[in-house]
Amino acid sequence: MQPVIEVTNLSKTYATGFEALKDVSLEVRRGEIFALLGPNGAGKTTLINIICGLVNPGEGRILVDGHDIVRDYRTTRKLIGLVPQELAIDAFESVWWTVSFSRGLFGRSKNPAHIEKILRSLALWDKKDAKVMTLSGGMKRRVLIAKALSHEPEILFLDEPTAGVDVELRQDMWNLVRSLRDTGVTIILTTHYIEEAEEMADRVGVINKGEIILVEDKHTLMQEHGKKELSLELDSPLAAIPESLSGHALQLDSDGRRLVFTYGTHGPRTGINALFADLGQAGIRFRDLETRQSSLQDIFVGLVRDRR
Amino acid sequence: MNVHAVRAIYTFEMARTFRTLLQSIVSPVLSTSLYFVVFGAAIGSRIESIDGVSYGVFIVPGLVMMSLLTLSISNASFGIYFPKFVGTIYELLSAPVSYLEIVLAYVGAAATKSVMIGLVMLATAAFFVPLRIDHPLVMVLFLVLTAVTFSLFGFIVGIWADGFEKLQLVPLLVVMPLAFLGGSFYSIDMLPPLWRTISLFNPVVYLVSGFRWSFIGTADVSVGISLFMTLAFLGLCLAAVAWIFRTGYRLKN
Asked: Which residues does chain B have within 8 Å of residue A102's beta carbon, measured at their own beta carbons?
């Protein structure tokens, strides 16, 4: 299937000389939730801003639904909705007015029924006549989403959609994003909250210092780069790890009461059986055990650290 | 042409005018009335006629033109600067609108407001002096042309400005002095030869002169030259706007 967004060898250097993107190539599939992760200044927002038309592209080519974003900007921009990171919104307008304005700006004729549907789905209907300045931060963010959806885009960019919103609203946002994906909208989100990507994304891209480090299906990524930890609570404390166990990836905590074994899950063997056999031979007994799967956050931090 | 977008921006800008009616319309009308009271009635009664008309009648075109220039610039510059200031410019830049459509909507709205206010000021003037318009079509032509040209200029100022101070800089420190020295309150023929020559480098002289000709049939410079100079400045502004959008100056970098 043709990717809905195709970025090829994109580079961008600002007038200050800062190289924000270095030969970035990326494909986003139709109908997926794609999470773009990266530390501050990695190039996430520059990439989004170039695709959406906010920043002049440098070298390279970007196709949206097969159309060049420079040559066919009218077609590509009609397909895209953008929710920016900042709460940039006209404070003096009513919710209804500002959302209707966005629809007109994107070349769509008036459709009060559609605006009503969006406002109801975002729990903003009872605030439709309220001035934006009277709304809470969370509601303003929802208004921004409503504006981005007003022209019925096929692709939605969410730049840090849950930055500064409370836990309850974050859950609401996640549900909303999922429901949008269910209607066929492709969603590209950047986020600092890795758990957000872990919760929602189908695929994950990691960008660091203007370079794409990897793009991977989330489950594959977690399987291939993820590790598990087996933690054993010992009957008696150890002064050091015995020589006979040196072949296992073990760590002993400071008080000698806990052994932690790290293992991968994608190989044919985990090494747990061998460890238990060697522990028995060494006369080390344990009274409890637990396992922990490394999170996307652990993987992300590891990937970014390795590239430093 | 994205007609919906042009209409949306134009309506948005016009709605802002009517929301701030006191500031947008009442204020210029009041200041014009004060000019007529001070210059027309108090001082003007002691000045003999100029170009065959009373001083009050003589200053009407200059006063309207002076307000038209400053209002066109401030309307258009604020219109584009405010989205930059609050960050809502992202929506404009990501929308499927061409540069021409953006300019058409913003400059169209700013020029509409200026023409409206210009007409209101003329109506106000009619309360103070016996208004005389010899060439009404030429008057409307100059009114619209000047409003569009200086709205374009204001649009450029709004993009260039990176603070409210700079937004005020050009109208107050450049346009206002040029308007005062451009024959709004006097005929440049009244100046000594040297100053008259220097005045001819002031573009406002040509605007006021052409506009005044449409009222009383006499002018400091020929109406053809006035029209040419206005069109030349319009062309200059269009070229500057085209360059801004081609390079993304202060918008896309």
From this structure: 91
Contact B79, B106 (CB under 8 A): yes
Q: Considering only residues 15 to 74 of chain B, which have any Cβ-Cβ distance to chain A shorter than 8 Å? A: 19
Distance CA B123, CA B144 (A): 17
Looking at the structure, do residues A290 and A203 belong to the same domain, yes or no? no
Mean pLDDT, chain A cut into blocks of 10 residues (308 residues total): 89 87 92 88 89 89 92 92 87 91 92 91 88 88 91 91 74 83 90 77 88 83 72 86 83 86 73 85 86 70 64
C-alpha torsion sign, points B46, B49, B50, B53: positive
Would you say residue A59 lies in a domain?
Answer: yes
Residue range(s) defining the domain that contains residue A133 = 5-223
Spell out the residues 6+ positions from residue A87 whose beta carbon is closer than 8 angstroms to its own.
Answer: A137, A140, A141, A144
In a shared domain, residues A290 and A232: yes
With a threshold of 0.90, tell me whether the complex ipTM lies above it.
Answer: no
Query: What residue of A is the nearest CA neighbor of B247?
Result: A56
pTM score? 0.79
Inter-axis angle of helices B203-216 and B136-160, to 10 degrees? 160
